[in-house]
Amino acid sequence: MSTGLNDDDRKTFAGIADVLIPAAEGMPAASEIGIQGEILDKVLGFRPDLRENLLRGLRAVKGKAAREAAEFLNKTDGTAFGAISLAASAGYYMDPKVRKLIGYPGQENRPYNADETPEYVRNGMLKVVSDRGPIYKPTPK
Amino acid sequence: MASAGSDRRGESADVLIIGAGASGSLAAKHLSENGFKVVCLDQGPWVDNKEFAGARPEWELMAQKRWHPNPNVRDLENDYPVDTSESDVNPLMYNAVGGSTILWAAHWQRFMPSDFRVKTLDGVADDWPFTYEELEPFYEQAEEEIGVSGLAGDPAFPPGKPLPLPPLPIGKIGMKAAEGMNKLGWHWWPGPNAIPSKSYRGRNACVRRGTCLTGCPEGAKASMDLVYWPASLKNGVKLITGARVKEVLVNDRGLATGAVYIDRQGRERTQKAGIVIVCANGIGTPRLLLLSTSKRFPNGLANSSGLVGKRLMMHPYAAVTGVFEEPLESWLGPAGQTIQSMQFYETDKSRGFVRGAKWQVMPSGGPLGMRAAYGGRPLEEAWGANLHRNTKRVFGHAFEWGIIAEDLPEESNRVVLDPKLTDSDGIPAPKLIYKNSENTKKLIDFHLARAQEAMKAAGAVSMTITPLMRDCGWHLMGTARMGEDPASSVIDQWGKAHDVPNLFIYDGSTFVTSSGFNPTGTICAVALRCVKHLIANRRDQEIAA
Ligand SMILES: Cc1cc2nc3c(=O)[nH]c(=O)nc-3n(C[C@H](O)[C@H](O)[C@H](O)COP(=O)(O)OP(=O)(O)OC[C@H]3O[C@@H](n4cnc5c(N)ncnc54)[C@H](O)[C@@H]3O)c2cc1C
Ligand code: SF4
Asked: Which domain of life is it from (chain B) (predicted)?
């Protein structure tokens, strides 16, 4: 399905995305991972509800310098800013390279052994709690 | 007993259940295995595990819309809108086979003995018509059927039978929080969850994906479509999905005779039954009763007390999130609770309020969730180089002490029919009028202060405080309360409406007080107690011909 975004829209989006997510602290800028291309299409594919607000925002600031555009939308159209910033940050953090850099494996499957005695039982941490005795009020007679 | 899948349109059922959520699913299973011919109507569809985004990169993005717990945000056809313009809190729910348990976190809590005796102990609200001890065997049976994981011996509760499954891992976040609690000498215990730590009765073991609140892709978490429906369908229950009930019908004798519903083709249909059980949750149930007016019941069905819709309780929720130097892998599940605390649960009047709250430690999700609440603030605060700095500092290094505050029943907090708003079938939608009381405000302030101490003791380097989360109405209770006296309650202790002898309510609407605990363990135990009583007394039960 076409997202209805033209090249100008994508360029505006990339500019704002880089203001929000610049190259800094060892992390790449949003446009360096291609936020305005396939990533944006993917985000809008998952969240078609964002499209209208995102487009309205991008078109309202067409031609403005990126920082000015971002500031303007943040002040004047929270919904559009919300859609643009969510699309940018969601796309960014879905990217495998970015995930690797922040040490996030995604919501992974992590095996464990349910029969193993938990550490807090082995080391006596929980025993101090039980040793203090009951703390509930019984049913009044 | 009829065979599975037979078409009973036009045919009368022994029992009609409205709502296939926690209480309705449990009731359908028990009635059908005891030979009752059951029809269950739910406005929602079946949800396939594969639809959940938990195991995919887009998980957090989808969590903010498709799998959002607020029906007004999700805005699906199977949802109904709720007017919250006069409510401090948004109600959360899911409308499908399994009901809200599709999205629930599966924290499994019993109430404490004092919860059933609030009037006697604290001089406020009311006592329940039964005690903790009377409910205990039903807790035990429900825990067995549903598959609860946890560790026996919690000194916050009376001793009882161990849970059927060993506890889930508490992770680094649980250990960290527990260390803090031990420094202070405060209570903590590994949290019980209705999530199997080993494969259990056809469900897979939890793999700690941590996405329980947006649906469990592993088929592990106890959502009632998986727990009860396979057996109920085998027993011949006819489950009609996409069936939105608009009215419970009554005859001249004042007995319920069935219900009118609208199917997904927009056709109006009638399902007849000898007995009707409403399980549409604390908002859906009063909505339906208020919609069901007749000459005999002009103010809504079973509403001679005027209490239908009143005494809504939703458990205001506050939280303290702590950030730690060391990595805690705080995206790991279950979510689900890792540890809990009842240190400040029971009333201590010297605090200046009555009742208390349960605390729980929960993981803090992925990198995107952290950004959700930043709109409108100066750009540089949340974005730019700060974004990267904050992510590195907080992501994977934070967890939350959540506080579930007991709110007391007040008649002014209520569900009414909205004069204008309707669902997609044109049926009037509910409106909530709900304000926090002074007692609740004082309670939350006290608990937030203590939770900050707990975070500090655990070694948090910084904290964020959420005084009251607006999207926190996970627990919907009290809008058709039970009691002995028909003048001051809607149903009796067996779920039977005082005004309509073959109409029952089994969901959280029946709660007399809210406790400070996640309610579904008690919803299930109470529904089980009610349905077993109905089965045992079937010969004396009045039914519509
Ligand atoms: C995000 C989230 C997290 C939660 N976490 C926890 C937790 O950790 N622990 C806990 O104890 N509880 C938790 N809860 C609450 C728990 O899910 C509910 O208490 C429980 O599911 C309520 O059961 P019920 O039978 O009353 O209603 P529900 O499970 O809500 O089911 C009601 C059903 O009725 C149907 N219905 C309503 N009206 C109509 C109508 N007019 N026609 C046809 N069908 C209708 C709905 O479609 C729905 O399927 C959570 C809830 C949410 C939303
Ligand atoms: S943590 Fe366990 S219950 Fe929760 S979604 Fe993952 S597998 Fe399911």
From this structure: Bacteria
CA distance A38 to chain B (A): 14
Q: Tell me how far the alpha carbon of residue B281 lies from the centroid of ligand 1, in angstroms.
A: 6
Give the residue extent of every domain in chain B.
Answer: 12-540
Our mutation pick for probing the ligand 1 site, out of B46, B76, B100, counting the most ligand atoms within 8 A of Cβ, is B100
Residue B168: both structure tokens together: 């889930």
Q: How far is CA A106 from the centre of its chain?
A: 12
Query: What is the model's pTM?
Result: 0.97
Optimal mutation site among B388, B394, B395, interface A, most CBs of chain A within 10 A: B388
**CB contact at 8 A, B429 and B82:** yes
Find, in chain B, the residue whose alpha carbon is nearest to that of A133: B155
pLDDT tens column, B370-420: 544 444 568 888 899 999 999 999 999 999 999 999 999 999 999 999 999
pLDDT in tens, B53-72: 999 999 999 999 999 999 99
**E strand intervals along B79-225:** 83-87, 189-190
Name the DSSP class of B343: T
- What φ, ψ does residue B211 adopt, rounded to 5°? -115, 25
Fold of B12-540: FAD/NAD(P)-binding domain (3.50.50)
Beta-carbon separation of B388 and A137 below 8 A: no
